[in-house]
Design goal:
heterodimer, A: 88 residues, mainly alpha, 4 helices, 75% helix, flat, B: 149 residues
Chain lengths: 88, 149
């Protein structure tokens, strides 16, 4: 019973992956969207940064970076709590 | 570790440190930034732990863990600088002061270090955070399981 359940879920998952591969969009389409055109054209004038990726990460989408930093902070705090030297 | 590993890591560690500092410092000009450069520098910590053993770096955890909080606080304070307009407003960009110069020319150009406002400062803040955080994680994982560890 367990084995049949496992086999069925494996087949369904494999079907999803194969369908996703068959109906994949052609490479490079859509070529540009309004959003990345805005970022590419305005990053040098608004943020004065040559690196558009950094301009997005630290300026346009700073909240995402703050969340990323919070994830790192939580990971470090968790490791420090679990693996610190036990007192007493 | 053997003499070969220790000698090679003595040569490689300063180079990797300099490269990490370069990646952080030029985050607003070239690919990379605070996270990537911090990971490079944290790999130096891993190299030193592997080559020289973790015991002699034990007291560094007391330095690295507060440094991580300092980086996080600096990042949030830099974000609060622009709170007059919005959170994360880049107040220093184009102001003419520190990091306030405009780009040398529009389109592809070699770039100038004194541009991009708060971005380089935020890169350093995040870089310190990642250096200290990942370095402390590597050290703590290496020290775990030792006696009185």
């Amino acid at each position: 019973m367990k084995r049949w359940l496992f086999l069925a879920s494996l087949l369904i998952l494999a079907g999803y992956f194969i369908a996703g591969g068959v109906w994949l969009r052609p490479f490079g389409e859509p070529a540009r969207s309004e959003m990345d055109r805005y970022f590419i054209e305005h990053a040098q004038t608004e943020v004065a940064a040559n690196n558009v990726v950094t301009a997005i990460v630290f300026d346009y989408r700073g909240y995402d970076t703050l969340g990323e930093a919070t994830v790192l902070f939580a990971a470090v705090v968790g490791v420090a709590l679990l693996l610190r030297r036990a007192r007493g | 570790m053997s003499v070969i590993v220790r000698t090679v890591s003595r040569v490689v560690a300063p180079v990797a440190l300099a490269f990490g500092a370069y990646v952080i410092m030029h985050g607003h000009l070239t690919p990379g930034g605070g996270f990537q450069g911090g990971a490079v520098v944290a790999s130096v910590v891993a190299l030193l732990v592997v080559a020289f053993g973790c015991e002699r770096w034990r007291k560094w955890t007391h330095v690295l863990l507060p440094l991580e909080d300092v980086g996080a606080m600096a990042f949030v304070i830099l974000a609060f600088l622009g709170v007059g307009a919005t959170f994360f407003r880049n107040v220093l960009a184009g102001s003419g002061g520190l990091f306030g110069a405009p780009v040398p020319q529009l389109g592809p150009n070699p770039g100038a270090l004194n541009t991009a406002g708060t971005l380089p400062l935020m890169n350093w803040a995040v870089g310190f955070k990642v250096i200290a955080g990942l370095g402390a994680v590597v050290l703590l994982l290496a020290l775990f399981g030792r006696e009185d560890g």
